[in-house]
Write a structure and sequence with these properties.
Blueprint (H helix, E strand, L loop, with lengths): L5 E2 L21 E2 L5 E6 L3 E6 L7 E8 L10 E11 L4 E6 L3 E6 L4 E5 L15 E6 L5 E6 L3 E6 L4 E7 L10 E9 L5 E7 L2 E6 L1
Antiparallel strand pairs: 1-2, 3-4, 4-5, 5-6, 7-8, 8-9, 9-10, 11-12, 12-13, 13-14, 15-16
Length: about 210
């Protein structure tokens, strides 16, 4: 299936429309992305999973790349104006956050890249931006979600793990702390679906 991308946010200063321009529009326009099966829109960048026919899925991103959130190995304050393919082995799902991006694979690995404020990339470090997809310490991932400064995931045991900023207790670990650079188990169990936005995390359980 070929999807036609239409975007409506009237701010294209970093190329988030993916139409090779920085021209803001107030009506839907077609992106250069084709064959998309899933799309995720961050603050000023977007990503998609592309699959045509029996070919394996591929991951693509475009737009704001000031922090490496596009994942093509470089930063670019002017933005990535057209979709570029991202190298994530066997990637099947991608989410664009405010300043970082994550993708899961068909074997349950999770890769993240971009801005690492508070350790939200989940590779054990803190404030160490990554410009290419970097494998997190999380395994067995079945679902995941990105907040502004934190990331969470559900594993095959239906446990929720979170990492990054814990201001306000958004990691769900029973205490408030400044930052957690590695996945830490939350109090949530039996989770089947998870979502994060800004400084809030929510999950459903069976």
């Amino acid at each position: 299936m070929v999807c036609r991308f239409f975007v409506t946010k009237p701010d294209n200063s970093f190329g988030a429309y993916g139409d090779a321009t920085k021209t803001a529009q107030k009506v839907p326009i077609k992106s250069q992305m084709t064959g998309a099966q899933q799309i995720s829109v961050g603050e000023f960048h977007a990503c998609a999973v592309k699959q045509v026919g029996a070919t394996p899925p591929s991951l693509w991103c475009w737009g704001d790349n000031r922090y490496g959130q596009i994942g093509n190995g470089v930063t670019n304050p002017l933005g990535q104006l057209v979709p570029v393919q991202i190298n994530v082995p066997a990637g099947i799902k991608i989410l664009a956050g405010v300043m970082h991006t994550c993708a899961s694979t068909n074997i349950g690995d999770l890769y993240c890249w971009g801005n690492d404020n508070f350790g939200k990339l989940g590779d054990g470090g803190v404030n160490n931006n990554k410009f290419v997809p970097t494998k997190t310490l999380m395994t067995g991932v079945t679902d995941f979600a990105l907040g502004e400064f934190h990331t969470c995931a559900i594993n095959t045991a239906k446990d929720v793990y979170c990492w990054g900023s814990n201001s306000g207790g958004k990691l769900g670990i029973g205490v408030i702390s400044a930052e957690v650079g590695s996945p830490i188990k939350s109090w949530m169990t039996g989770a089947t679906d998870i979502s994060a936005r800004g400084s809030t995390t929510c999950a459903t359980n069976a």
